[in-house]
């Protein structure tokens, strides 16, 4: 499955703009991404594509800070035998508390930004699909 980062050289890490890993591919324009998606769908076996988009700079959390908070929350969860469906809720609440609500705002910003990028890609794809790919 192709992995492409939208407007970033780095593979993002949810709250952070970079995970510390380089993205295999980068595309900057919705029109180019739309063409890549269409070509991928036309290839034998080409069904899925992972498009990553980084958090906007003003919404990102410093990776060292959030990594430390997440590690501590995971340790506390293990210590308290929190597993299964309860684990995600526990981690989200703990991370939110430890970041004084910044993580919840960043989480919402990630969702909004992802929707905005998806909308741009959908519009570009529809445009080229209706008008031709040349």
From TrEMBL:
One of its GO terms (cellular component) is cytoplasm. Keywords: Glycosidase, Hydrolase, Lyase, Manganese, Metal-binding. Gene3D superfamilies: Indigoidine synthase domain. One of its GO terms (molecular function) is hydrolase activity, acting on glycosyl bonds. Pfam families: Indigoidine_A. InterPro entries: Indigdn_synthA-like (IPR022830), PsuG (IPR007342). This is Putative enzyme involved in pigment biosynthesis.
